[in-house]
Structure to design on (145 residues):
C-alpha cells in the first residue's frame, strides 16, 4: 500500500498560471502541467538560490523528496521549452502558507485562509505578496509599469 502524500508547503500560488509559445493558439498546443509543489521547488532553488536542504526544510519535505520534486519540475520545463508546448501551473498536494494583500484597502491575510484570494475585510480580490512584501504584482518595490 502506498503512503499518502503529505501536503507540501507553498508560499503563494503563481500569479500567471499559463505559459505558451507566441503566435500559436493554446488549444493547438500539447499541454504540460507543473504542480504547485514543483513550481515552489523551482522558485526556491533556482530563483531564490536556496540549497536543496534549505528549500526542503521550508517546504517541510525530506531532502531526497525535494530532489525528486525539483528533478520532475526541471524535466517538465525542459520539455516545454525544447518542444514548444504550453505550460499550466496548478494542482498537487499543497498547503498555502503565504500572505495576500488587498489592493483596495491594504488589509493583509494568509492566502491559505482565503483560497480565492478575496479580501475578508472588503471583498476585493487580493494579490499574493512577492519579495518586497508590499503586494506589487511584479515582486519588487517601485511603481508598476
Amino acid at each position: 500500500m502506498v503512503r499518502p502524500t503529505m501536503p507540501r508547503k507553498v508560499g503563494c500560488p503563481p500569479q500567471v498560471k499559463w505559459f505558451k509559445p507566441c503566435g500559436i493558439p493554446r488549444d493547438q498546443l500539447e499541454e504540460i502541467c507543473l504542480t504547485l509543489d514543483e513550481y515552489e521547488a523551482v522558485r526556491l532553488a533556482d530563483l531564490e538560490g536556496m540549497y536543496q536542504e534549505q528549500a526542503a526544510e521550508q517546504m517541510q519535505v525530506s531532502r531526497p523528496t525535494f530532489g525528486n520534486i525539483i528533478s520532475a519540475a526541471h524535466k517538465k520545463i525542459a520539455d516545454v521549452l525544447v518542444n514548444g508546448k504550453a505550460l499550466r501551473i496548478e494542482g498537487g498536494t499543497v498547503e498555502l502558507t503565504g500572505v495576500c494583500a488587498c489592493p483596495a484597502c491594504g488589509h493583509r491575510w494568509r492566502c491559505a485562509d482565503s483560497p480565492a484570494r478575496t479580501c475578508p475585510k472588503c471583498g476585493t480580490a487580493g494579490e499574493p505578496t512577492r519579495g518586497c512584501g508590499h503586494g506589487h504584482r511584479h515582486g519588487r518595490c517601485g511603481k508598476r509599469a
